């Protein structure tokens, strides 16, 4: 019985019936709606926002949050599978869902008031309210504690000044979850589009995540009421808690990108005839394909176990760092190797590896660079902080 090249260890058999149904539904959506248009969208530098209503109708926004807020109430493994299948289409589509779900809806649910949950989460689940996450600053990068954006209390209001950079969904967003330094430490605020002094400026000339909106956010004496402050968290644990949720999804997403690249080159090397035989008949090619399958299999097992730990309430941030580091490195290496196997054809977006390789340059960098996650694991092993 032939094995599935993208699932050599039959990991699908370890999924529940509901998890398999969710994976299949998102896979169909990716095959039918994303893949036919994403190459052109990437070429144009355009986020295909026409897909958002169907993404929302499928319950993919805030999918792990409770049904009482209009969400699907799915488990962590299901969310991971959603990320995997969406990124098999494109990292930009998965990034949109990750930001909306893990970086915007999650903090409102986890750190917000009940009034804030009722006000925003149902509309966000329906895709009627889009969010962005304002943490990274122009000078900050991997050191979020070095935060210059600040919020000052003024009577019953807060006045925010500062800037954020590399913000996914920034110019699409109706609300921004903004983290700012206050006299009581870092706190989160919900800033609505159109608030005087709040401006989003789209970042152009990107060579990565071209089918995604990336922006700078600027705050010039932005005044908001205290009711827009997230009341249930203070300090870096707030934004870092959000990032742990998003990084978890990112451990799954690159698996999909790598699977897309492997599928592309397996088919290509069977059809491409060089020196009188298929390219796939060469030992060098088979060794490369086998190594891709090996690395994808290891990544699948890593993320599935991480998902089971998450659903059991036992997932630790260091475990997320290990999987994010491993799986992003796996995927970018496979995308680059696949591009090479395609030869000259590999530099066009008619084939997916160059697009995935360029996207993964961002994925391996954002929400913790590879080096940051290596140091997180090193700190766990030694007990010494080397940052």
TrEMBL record:
Keyword Membrane: no
Cross-referenced InterPro entries: Acyl-CoA_DH_CS, Acyl-CoA_Oxase/DH_mid-dom, Acyl-CoA_Oxase/DH_mid-dom_sf, AcylCo_DH-like_C, AcylCo_DH/oxidase_C, AcylCoA_DH/ox_N, AcylCoA_DH/ox_N_sf, AcylCoA_DH/oxidase_NM_dom_sf
MF terms in GO: fatty-acyl-CoA binding; flavin adenine dinucleotide binding; glutaryl-CoA dehydrogenase activity
Biological process (GO), any one: fatty acid beta-oxidation using acyl-CoA dehydrogenase
Annotated ranges, domain Acyl-CoA oxidase/dehydrogenase middle: 132-222
Pfam families noted in UniProt: Acyl-CoA_dh_1, Acyl-CoA_dh_M, Acyl-CoA_dh_N
Keywords: FAD, Flavoprotein, Oxidoreductase, Transit peptide
Cofactor(s) required for function per UniProt: FAD
Source organism, top-level taxon: Bacteria
SUPFAM superfamilies linked to this entry: Acyl-CoA dehydrogenase C-terminal domain-like, Acyl-CoA dehydrogenase NM domain-like
Pathway named in the protein's UniProt entry: Amino-acid metabolism; tryptophan metabolism; Amino-acid metabolism; lysine degradation
Catalytic reaction annotation: glutaryl-CoA + oxidized [electron-transfer flavoprotein] + 2 H(+) = (2E)-butenoyl-CoA + reduced [electron-transfer flavoprotein] + CO2
Tagged with keyword Transmembrane: no
Family the UniProt entry places it in: Belongs to the acyl-CoA dehydrogenase family.
Name of this protein: glutaryl-CoA dehydrogenase (ETF)
Organism: Arenimonas maotaiensis
Gene that encodes it: gcdH
């Amino acid at each position: 019985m032939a094995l599935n090249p993208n699932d050599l260890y039959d990991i699908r058999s370890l999924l529940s019936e509901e998890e398999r149904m969710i994976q299949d539904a998102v896979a169909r959506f990716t095959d039918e709606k994303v893949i036919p248009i994403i190459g052109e969208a990437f070429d144009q530098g355009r986020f295909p926002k026409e897909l958002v209503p169907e993404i929302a109708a499928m319950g993919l926004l805030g999918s792990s949050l409770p049904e009482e807020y209009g969400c699907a109430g799915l488990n962590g493994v299901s969310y991971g599978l959603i990320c995997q299948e969406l990124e098999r289409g494109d990292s930009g589509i998965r990034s949109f869902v990750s930001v909306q779900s893990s970086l915007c809806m999650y903090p409102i649910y986890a750190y917000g008031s009940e009034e804030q949950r009722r006000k925003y989460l149902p509309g966000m689940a329906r895709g009627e309210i889009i969010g962005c996450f304002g943490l990274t600053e122009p000078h900050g990068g991997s050191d979020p504690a070095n935060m210059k954006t600040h919020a000052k209390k003024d009577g019953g209001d807060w006045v925010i000044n500062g800037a954020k950079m590399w913000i996914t969904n920034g110019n699409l967003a109706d609300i921004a979850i903004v983290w700012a330094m206050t006299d009581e430490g870092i706190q989160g605020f919900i800033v609505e589009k159109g608030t005087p002094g709040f401006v989003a400026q789209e970042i152009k000339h990107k060579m990565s995540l071209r089918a995604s909106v990336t922006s700078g956010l600027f705050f010039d004496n932005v005044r908001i009421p205290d009711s827009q402050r997230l009341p249930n968290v203070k300090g870096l644990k707030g934004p870092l808690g959000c990032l742990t949720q998003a990084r978890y999804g990112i451990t799954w997403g690159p698996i999909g990108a790598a699977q897309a690249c492997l599928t592309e080159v397996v088919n290509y090397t069977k059809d491409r005839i060089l020196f009188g035989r298929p390219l796939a008949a060469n030992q060098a090619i088979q060794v490369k394909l086998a190594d891709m399958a090996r690395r994808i299999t290891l990544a699948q097992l890593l993320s599935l176990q991480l998902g089971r730990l998450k659903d059991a309430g036992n997932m630790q941030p260091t475990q997320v760092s290990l999987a994010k580091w491993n799986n992003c490195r796996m995927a970018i290496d496979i995308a680059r190797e696949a591009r090479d196997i395609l030869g000259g054809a590999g530099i066009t977006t008619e084939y997916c590896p160059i697009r995935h390789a360029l996207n993964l340059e961002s994925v391996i960098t954002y929400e913790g660079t590879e080096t940051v996650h290596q140091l997180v694991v090193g700190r766990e092993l030694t007990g010494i902080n080397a940052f």
